[in-house]
Amino acid sequence: MTTSPDPDPHSTPRVDAIHLADTARGPVHPVPQATAIPGRGLLGDRYECGAGTFSDWPKDHELTLVEAEVIEDLARTHGVHFAPGEHRRNVTTRNLRLNGLVGRRFRLGPDVECEGTRLCEPCDHLEAVTARPNLCRIMAGRGGLRARIVSGGTVRVGDEIVLVPSPALA
């Protein structure tokens, strides 16, 4: 497994991009902001509408995230160049390791609180929809994070991402 460059320790974790797709396998569209709805997802996205390929899976998440540094590393080290949002994750982050957020709460901007539920490992579906073989192998352990929305509101590109202290630590 390839590791990605470490986040810049002098930079604040931020929302780098937000992407929605209104249908399964449909094109993704960048948006400057999105409304996060607990128990459903991002307003207008395929999963919020119940139209996603995996909508019948257990509902342990309402959105997916991926590190911008991973996407950039795939281009640099493997020649895999994604068009914006082609990775099919809703939120692209910068300066934050997502794998450590499984079981942790975090805020996207001032309003939206989320909880990481499990890693969002790449799958055969991603390889098929992007027509890129070997994504499962080269993205293993770096495919992003699935999260549930604890409290809703608006998330915006550029919003700061802040870890929420666990009750035992507060």
Brief digest:
The protein is of the alpha+beta class.
Structure write-up:
The chain has 170 residues and is α+β, with helices and mostly antiparallel strands. It has a single domain, classed as M1 Pyruvate Kinase, Domain 3 (Beta Barrel), CATH 2.40.33.20. The protein is 13% helix and 31% strand. The strands form two sheets. Strands 2-1-6-5-9-8-7-11 form an eight-stranded mixed β-sheet.
Protein topology:
Layout: E1 14-20, E2 29-30, E3 33-37, E4 41-42, E5 63-67, H1 68-78, E6 91-94, E7 105-108, E8 112-119, H2 124-130, H3 135-138, E9 145-151, E10 153-156, E11 161-164
- The N- and C-terminal alpha carbons lie at a distance of 35 Å
Radius of gyration: 15 Å
Mean pLDDT: 83
Q: List the strand order in the largest sheet.
A: 2-1-6-5-9-8-7-11
Please bin the fraction of helical residues.
10-25%
Tell me the CATH architecture.
Answer: Beta Barrel
Quote the beta fraction: 25-35%
Number of domains: 1
Q: Give the SSE string.
A: EEEEEHEEEHHEEE
Structural class: alpha+beta
The first-level CATH class name: Mainly Beta
CATH superfamily: PK beta-barrel domain-like
- The total strand number stands at 11
Features:
170 residues, alpha+beta, M1 Pyruvate Kinase, Domain 3, 8-stranded mixed beta sheet, 3-stranded antiparallel beta sheet, 3 helices, 13% helix, globular
